[in-house]
């Protein structure tokens, strides 16, 4: 059963949707949308996820952050979304019997928002997919191109994939490659990455986590590659030692876990988080 609701958040109104199971929910999930995405998700992915989990006995609440979709107010980005998440959680708790286990799920910068602004009272577990660790990049200098370069780790992963693709070699021979950009990329690929300020903040936040937290990575997704590079850096040294954190990798390039096998894997991880919550 799907219901639409709205609630207040610091003088603005947040629009939300809750999917309820038949009977009393055995667990509940709060979905936080990434970027400026609507609560339905890309290609209605989050709406379909909520429907699938409701069919398995879960209550699932999704919402539009202030300034996005049907919600009022200014869109101040993921880094200012702590009050929005807290207000949505209050609504989800009110819709469930006392003691119902509640997990929260976010992809990309929504995952980062959950890690940065938690712990939220009443959340028993977190599922953080492809957390965003990239600061607003300063333009690269030297050849007039003001396009920010990805990290060295992301460039190396991209070039490895290109070297395996015969069409890329043919494109190079035909002059279809920007040699200036290629040279910049090769130089960057040889360098080491310094963790971003956001990565350092996330590392500190994850170090403090006291609830079960799954980190899900679609291994060939650029955002996941950037996180993996940060995860192995000194910024996450203490977080890696936190027994509450677990890292799970999927051989996929789909940022939103859109393929059928990816979707099944994501559902499994979420159900595990919900059923293992106290």
UniProtKB/TrEMBL annotation:
The record, for Gene3D superfamilies, names: alpha/beta hydrolase
This chain's protein is named: Hydrolase 1, exosortase A system-associated
**Species classification:** Bacteria, Pseudomonadati, Pseudomonadota, Alphaproteobacteria, Sphingomonadales
- Originating organism: Flavisphingopyxis soli
Tell me the InterPro entries matching this sequence. AB_hydrolase_fold (IPR029058), Hydrolase-1_PEP (IPR017531), Hydrolase_4 (IPR022742)
Keyword Hydrolase attributed: yes
Question: Where does the Serine aminopeptidase S33 domain start and stop, copy by copy?
Answer: 25-261
Q: Which UniProt keywords apply?
A: Hydrolase
Keyword Transmembrane assigned to the entry: answer is no
Give the matching NCBIfam families: hydr1_PEP
Q: Name one GO molecular function term.
A: hydrolase activity
């Amino acid at each position: 059963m799907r219901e639409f609701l709205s609630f207040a958040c610091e003088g603005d109104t947040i629009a939300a949707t809750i999917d309820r199971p038949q009977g009393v929910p055995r667990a509940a999930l709060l979905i936080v949308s990434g970027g400026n995405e609507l609560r339905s998700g890309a290609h209605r992915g989050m709406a379909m996820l909520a429907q699938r989990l409701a069919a398995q006995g879960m209550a699932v609440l999704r919402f539009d952050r202030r300034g996005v979709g049907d919600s009022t107010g200014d869109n101040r980005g993921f880094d200012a979304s702590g009050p929005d998440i807290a207000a949505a959680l209050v609504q989800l708790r009110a819709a469930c019997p006392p003691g119902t286990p509640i997990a929260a799920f976010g992809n990309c910068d929504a995952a980062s928002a959950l890690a940065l602004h938690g712990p939220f009272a009443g959340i028993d577990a977190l599922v953080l997919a492809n957390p965003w660790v990239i600061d607003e990049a300063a333009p690269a200098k030297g050849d007039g191109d003001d396009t920010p370069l990805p990290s060295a780790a992301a460039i190396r992963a991209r070039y490895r994939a290109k070297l395996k693709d015969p069409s890329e070699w043919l494109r190079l021979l035909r002059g279809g490659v920007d040699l200036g950009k290629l040279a910049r990329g090769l130089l960057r690929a040889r360098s080491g990455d310094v963790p971003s300020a956001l990565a350092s903040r996330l590392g500190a936040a994850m170090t403090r986590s006291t609830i079960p937290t799954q980190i899900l990575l679609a291994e060939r997704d650029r955002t996941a590659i950037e996180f993996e590079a940060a995860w192995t850096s000194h910024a996450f040294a203490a977080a890696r030692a936190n027994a509450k954190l677990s890292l799970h990798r999927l051989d996929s390039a789909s940022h939103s876990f859109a393929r059928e096998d990816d979707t099944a894997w994501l559902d499994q991880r979420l159900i595990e988080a919900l059923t293992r919550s106290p």
